[in-house]
Amino acid sequence: MPRRLRASPDPAADAPARRAVSAGDCGLLLIRLTFGLLLAGHGAQKLFGIFGGDGLDATAKALDSLGYRPGKVYAVIGGGSELLGGLGFALGLFTPLAAGAMIGVMINAMVTVTAAHGVWVTDGGLEYNVSIAVVALGVAATGPGRLALDRPFRWGRGGRSEAVVALLLGGVSAAVVLLL
Most buried among 10, 18, 97, 119, by the most CB within 10 A? Predict the structure, then answer.
């Protein structure tokens, strides 16, 4: 009985599915880079006085006047949270933690400074702070996308638990700072 030769299987059918980078992944990268690097720059202004910032001593004095004592400690905590949280967010690295740092700093800014001025940033209001906090929470919930360093890890896919971690971390850290 002659053997029947079959066509070789389609290599694409046998290969594991490799997803291409989508427009959504590129959009998430753009959001992470924009919000993360701007906030990291804001932290660098506070800590190092670069990008037109006043530096650590002036930031410490400003925080002292708002009731954060000792001001230098809070300047390092706030500036460090903005710098490291922003860089982590931009890179998509430990995204729920980076988002939590961003949310915590923004809650503090809203409670102590901007909420008293209403909504709009043109009046010194909380529009900017709310935007950053919501973007951070949204990215924690959706995940940072395929163009992120978190991609190989479970938390790199986002989800309810990642959003809850970011929100709780931000809320609890803000509450601790505000109560001290």
Answer: 97
All residues at 6 or more sequence positions from 133 whose CB lies less than 8 Å from its CB, including other chains: 102, 103, 106, 107, 110, 170
Q: Indicate the Cα dihedral angle 50, 136, 140, 149, nearest 10°.
A: -20
Sign of CA dihedral 64, 66, 68, 71: negative
Give the Cα separation of 87 and 82 in Å (integer). 8
User: Are the C-beta atoms of 58 and 48 separated by less than 8 Å?
Assistant: no
Q: Which residue type occupies 2?
A: P
pLDDT in tens, 72-99: 999 999 999 999 999 999 999 999 999 9
Interacting residues of 149 by C-beta distance below 8 A, sequence separation 6+: 91, 92, 93
Exposed (0-12), middle (13-18) or buried (19+): which is 152, by Cβ within 10 Å? exposed
Phi, psi dihedral angles at 111 (to 5 degrees): -65, -40
Q: Are 67 and 10 in contact (CB under 8 A)?
A: no
